[in-house]
Amino acid sequence: MDEQLRVGLIGAGPWAERVHAPAIAGHPGSRLVSVWARRPEAAAGLAGAHGAATASSPEELISQVDAVAFAVPPEVQAPLAIQAAEAGRHVVLEKPIAGSLDEARRLADAVDRAGVASLVVLTKRYTPDTREQLERVHAEGGWVGGSVRWLTGALLSGPYSHSPWRHERGALDDLGPHVFDLLDAALGPVVEVVAADRSAHDVWQVVLRHEGGATSTAMLTMSLAVSPPVLEVEVYGTAGQRTLTTPATTPIEAYTNLLDEFAALIDSGKTSHPLDVRRGLHLQSIIAKIRESSTRTP
Q1: Which CATH number fits domain 128-247: 3.40.50.800, 3.30.360.10, 3.90.70.10, 3.40.50.300?
Q2: 128-247: same fold as 5-123+251-275?
Q3: According to CATH, what is the number of the domain 5-123+251-275?
Q4: What is the pLDDT along the chain (298 residues), one digit of tens a residue?
Q5: Around Cβ 149, how many Cβ atoms within 10 Å?
Q6: Where exactly are the transmembrane stretches of this chain (predicted)?
Q7: Is the dihedral of CA 53, 55, 58, 64 positive or negative?
Q8: What is the pLDDT of residue 294?
Q9: Reduced 3-state DSSP string for the chain
């Protein structure tokens, strides 16, 4: 792009502070212009650290920028992102993209109607390691199944342990989009939730069926004192078993790659991308089906 993309950031919590703000401010193609958060003191602190201004309202922020990045709970993100899209602003969306499937549909439709670019912050998918591994998986073919185990104690301690929406929605909404996105990308689109169960300790166990007949399993929690955290992703089939290793890329590096692709989308005038709002809607539909299928409703 000939000029830097003017980006506004809505949200000033730990993830905004650690990833969104430094990546946007440090990218050569973007400039962090304004920050708004429900806590003005948090917005002021984050904005000041990166040479940005603060906005008195989301409407003021949206009026000042070319694009809006969101680092807020899903039920807060969706209506504000719709507002931004309707104002012609491109959007960087956190996962899950909304608080409900209906909200996610409204958001996706608003982005489509406005003809703006959108990307979802599925950090692992913006890393060269993951992309190369998925390319090898697709080239080999013959996969009949896969599994993911992601076990952490992130809700027990650490920077995200005081997040109300994460405690309310648990691992399904926070880790789930990453997990189901990887399984879907490796084995084909998820078409059915075969079984789902949530234990009293918020341990989710899910069985999925993919287009073409492959099946996969997922086990995830953020409420067990597992140290170090466990993240295992594998696929298996006629070619044997393959493990997708954890990317060495940091979240800021992954977000920088996202911004590269975001700027390229906008510069080209295109809006379609494998990780755009429609991908977010697909993942939201999987989460909704899992909740409906759960033998223990949260």
Answers
A1: 3.30.360.10
A2: no
A3: 3.40.50.720
A4: 558 999 999 999 999 999 999 999 999 999 999 999 999 999 999 999 999 999 999 999 999 999 999 999 999 999 999 999 999 999 999 999 999 999 999 999 999 999 999 999 999 999 999 999 999 999 999 999 999 999 999 999 999 999 999 999 999 999 999 999 999 999 999 999 999 999 988 899 999 999 999 999 999 999 999 989 999 999 999 989 999 988 788 999 999 999 999 999 999 999 999 999 999 999 999 999 999 998 665 4
A5: 17
A6: none
A7: negative
A8: 86
A9: CCCCEEEEEECCCHHHHHHHHHHHHHCCCEEEEEEECCCHHHHHHHHHHCCCEECCCHHHHHHCCCEEEECCCHHHHHHHHHHHHHCCCEEEECCCCCCCHHHHHHHHHHHHHHCCCEEECCHHHHCHHHHHHHHHHHHHCCEEEEEEEEECCCCCCCCCCCCHHHHHHHHHHHCHHHHHHHHHHHHCCEEEEEEEEECCCCCEEEEEEECCCCEEEEEEECCCCCCCCEEEEEEEECCEEEEECCCCCCHHHHHHHHHHHHHHHHHHCCCCCCCCHHHHHHHHHHHHHHHHHECCCC
> CB atoms < 10 A from the CB of 286, how many?
26
Tokens of 293: 């299928």
pLDDT at residue 145, as a whole number: 97
Which tokens in the block code for residue 125?
């998918």
User: What are the backbone dihedrals phi and psi of residue 282, each rounded to the nearest 5 degrees, phi first?
Assistant: -60, -45
Q: Tokens 């809607």 label which residue?
A: 281
Bridge partners, residue 145, by sequence:
215, 236
The model's pTM: 0.95
